[in-house]
Structures are given as structure tokens and as C-alpha cells.
Here is the input.
Amino acid sequence: MTYVMEAVAQYSKLLVILDRPNPISGNLQLAEGPMLDMATASFLGRWSLPLRHSCTLGELARYFNTMKNIKARLEVIPCSEWDRNMFQPDWHLPFVPTSPAIQSFESMLLYPGDVTMYKLSTKSLIIFSSDGDCQHEYKFGEVNGLASLV
Here is the structure.
């Protein structure tokens, strides 16, 4: 997205971004994880931010536009009826896999903590994070206390 923003700025065009909530919550108290080592920056990881940043695409666009002085003309179309504390299941929309190894909401939620296990299988993120009993009932509304434990 940031490369598109730079091209838009270079050619004095308007970039319209249809905002998308973060599927593992927009609650900024849940932001956590390692930051990118800029010595390893690449097309996949260009600038440093926490692995679990809790931002929407529109928020990231505005952030990078300001912090990296891109100067793109942006218009962000917000999502209606969205709350920062919502997780993907709260949207009442079908889950769409985000990659071949992330085939469930549970895998997506666990990815920031188990990124090293990412390529083992389509179930590796769930199995690696489980205590052996995969019949847990997740109560995502009670996650807010997690940030205070990190």
C-alpha cells in the first residue's frame, strides 16, 4: 500500500482507500509483538511497527503518510457499524483465509505469537498454541486484560 501511496503522490492523484478493520481487533491496548529490524526491511516488511498493531488499513495509510512524509492525497472511506473491540467473528461475515497456512480465525488470532511455526502445516498455529484440548470456547470479549500481562 505504501508503494501505491508514493506513486499517487508522485503523480498528484487521489488514493481512495476502502477501510478494513483489523480482524484480530482494533483495540490498541492489544497491540504487541516485535518490531521490524530495519536491517532486514524488504518488500514484505518495509517499516517498523508491532507485529500485532491493531490498526485498520486506513489508519496505517494515514500513519505512514504522515510519519514517512509521503504526501499522498488520501481519502479513507470508513467502515460502518464497526467497533474497535470487535474481532472477525463479531462481523457476522464468513471467514476468508488470509494465507494458505491461516485457514481459520483461531490460526489468524494465534499467528502473532507463533509466527515461527507458520509454515509447518495449515494446523500448526492452532496445534502449537494448544494445551492439547482443542475444544476450548474462546471468549474474545474478555481478552482486554491480556495487554496488562505483556
